[in-house]
Amino acid sequence: MTKVRHRVFTGAHLERMEQIMRDVCADFGCELAEFTGEANHVHLLVNFPPKVALSCLVNSAKGVSSRRMRTEFPEPARHYYRANKLWSGSYFAGSVGGAPIRVLRQYIEQQDRPV
């Protein structure tokens, strides 16, 4: 979730954000299996080995994406630069041991749809 919950992301922002998140995951030896986003938050489905600390992965993904997005897309500055943070400090993580990947992808894709 973005820090101040403004509608910050456009399609171009989300495309770049996905690549940034893929790069961060690869640096940790993880796989970004699915990515979707809305104007003020993103959803990631990540396969990661047990040796990776989830908090470290999330911290790095948020930090790297915030710095790169600020550099590459300065126009949304009025929304989140006053706090000098793109993301809120919180995140949600859940584990999905036995569900087929197609079911998980379907769930994540449905998160984009307005209620």
UniProtKB/TrEMBL annotation:
Q: Which Pfam families is this protein grouped with?
A: Y1_Tnp
Q: Which InterPro entries match?
A: Transposase_17, Transposase_17_sf
What are the residue boundaries of the Transposase IS200-like domain, all occurrences included? Answer: 1-111
SMART domains with a match to the protein in the record: Y1_Tnp
What domain of life?
A: Bacteria
Gene3D superfamilies attached to this UniProt entry: Transposase IS200-like
List the NCBIfam families hit by this protein, alphabetically: transpos_IS200 (NF033573)
Q: Could you identify this protein by its name? A: IS200/IS605 family transposase
